[in-house]
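Tutorial handout. Part one gives the primary structure; part two gives the three-dimensional structure as tokens.
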Amino acid sequence: MFAALLFATAVAKKVPDFLPNAAASKTVTVVARGQAQKSIVILTEAVAIKETGPKETVKAFGEVYAFSPTTISVHRDEPTLITFWNLQGDDEHDVMLMDDHNNVLMKVTLPPLKKTAYIFTFHREGVFTFTCTLHLPEMSGQVLVFPPSR
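Part two.
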């Protein structure tokens, strides 16, 4: 699985931002505007960076970032506003969403000190992975999609 993730990441770094195409939209619809039934905020966190250290950690591992939370849950066919807050002033991040077969569904840039929001509607249950292609493998998370709520 890690090899597939690295391949998808290499491909994603070479392509501009994109939302799900017609085929991917059968799995997840992503739109910039609309009505959402739920709202989730995901933050970018600096775990170990050159400005604040710890210096030995940065020397050994490079800068380390994370998403918080790393796991979110939604219901199938429930429009959910997911807002990514890039809290870093000098570091760009991105979000690449993949399905359970490591097919890349979308990729968008998270500019420094900006909020980037989309309404996600997952049409299939399962576990979906999201990553920052610039800061792998640490900066990743999962979307757990459950059956519709009653």
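Part three, for discussion. Residues 2-14 form the longest helix (13 residues). Strands lie at 28-31, 38-48, 64-68, 71-75, 80-85, 93-98, 104-110, 115-122, 126-131, 140-146.
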